[in-house]
Known about the structure:
Helix 1 runs parallel beside helix 6 (201-214) and helix 2 packs across helix 3. The chain has 10 helices and 8 strands. The radius of gyration is 19 Å and the shape is globular. By secondary structure, the chain is of the alpha/beta class. It has helices spanning 8-24, 112-125, 138-150, 167-178, 183-195, 201-214, 233-239, 279-288, 304-307, 309-326, and strands spanning 39-46, 49-56, 64-67, 90-94, 131-136, 155-161, 267-272, 293-297. The chain has one domain: Alpha/Beta hydrolase fold, catalytic domain (Rossmann fold). The longest helix has 18 residues, at 309-326. An 8-stranded mixed sheet has the order 1-2-4-3-5-6-7-8, sandwiched between helices. It starts with 7 loop residues before the first helix and ends with a helix.
Amino acid sequence: MRTWYRNSSDVFLGLVFAVLTVWSGMVLGATATERSATLRSGFVSVPGGPLWYEVAGDSDGVPLLTLHGGPGGTSCGLQLLYPLADERPVIRYDQLGTGRSGRPRDPSLWQRDRFVEALHTLRSELGLSRMHLQGHSWGGALAAYYVLEKGTEGIVSLTLSSPLISTPLWIRDANALRATLDPEVQAVLALHEREGSTDHPDYVEATGKFYAAFVSRGEAVETVTCEDAPWNPVIYEQMWGPTEFFATGSLQDFDLVSRLPEIDVPTLFITGEYDEARPQTIRSFAEAVPGARFEVIPEVGHASLNRAPELYRSILREFLREAESVSVP
C-alpha cells in the first residue's frame, strides 16, 4: 500500500487505483519500456468532451484498436502492446472522463451506451474501416457490447481479455474466490459490506488479500508510466462499485451471455490461470461463440499483460495473423 494516502478513504481509493493500473499493465514510478514504433496522438470530439488517442506504428497492416479496463481506468499500460506495431498500427485511447481525455462532471455520461457511441465516433474519425478490436476486463465488456450493438462489418477479429461478460456471473465467481480466503478475512468483508463501511481500514486490508491473490498476482515484468494521465474513481464507483467483488453500480444488470452466439467474427478469449475472471467461466463464454479460441496464461491473475507480456503478445500476434488469413478484404 502506498504510504502517501492519509486516511482510510484515501487508502481505499489507492487500492482501487492499484487494481485499475494492473488491469492496464501500469505501475507508477517504473521506467517506461523502450518503444521503437513511431507515435502520433490527437483528440476526437464526442458528446461530453474530447477523447485522447495515440497511434503506434505506420505499417500497412490491419490496425489493432485496444480498449482499457475500469470503468475509469486509463490506456497507459496498453503501451505494452506497442511491440505489435511492427506489423500493424496499434491504437489506444483514454475513455471519456479519464486519462488525457476530457473530464466532464455530468454523471449521465457514465453509462454503457454512451461509451459505445464514443468508440464508434473514434473509429469513424480515424478511418478504421477494417480493424482488430481488443479489450481487457471492462474493455472486454465494451468490445463485446460494441460488436453486438454496431455489428461486425469491418471487424477482422475480436479479442476479449479477462472480460466482464456477465455481472451476475462475475459476482458468482468472486464469491467462490472469496470463499478460498481465510475465514477471518471473509468475515471482515461481509461485515463492512452489510454496514456500508467499505472505506474502513479493516475492509481495505481484507480487500487487498483478494486483489493480491486474483488480480495483481505475481511480479510485473514490464511497466510503463503515465503520471500526467490519472484515472477517475468517480466513474468506477458509479458504474461498478467499491470493489471488484461488490457491484453496486449501473453495471449490476450487465449480461451478454445470451447474445454471445451472435458474434460471427474470429474471437479470442484469454485469461489468467488465477484470474478473477475465472478460466472455467471464460471457457464457457468461448464455447458460446462459434469457432472462438480460448487461452489461459499460466501463473498469473487478472494483470496478465504486464505479468507475462511476451506470452500475451505472442498469443495475440498469432491470433491476429490467423484472423487475417481467413478475412475477406
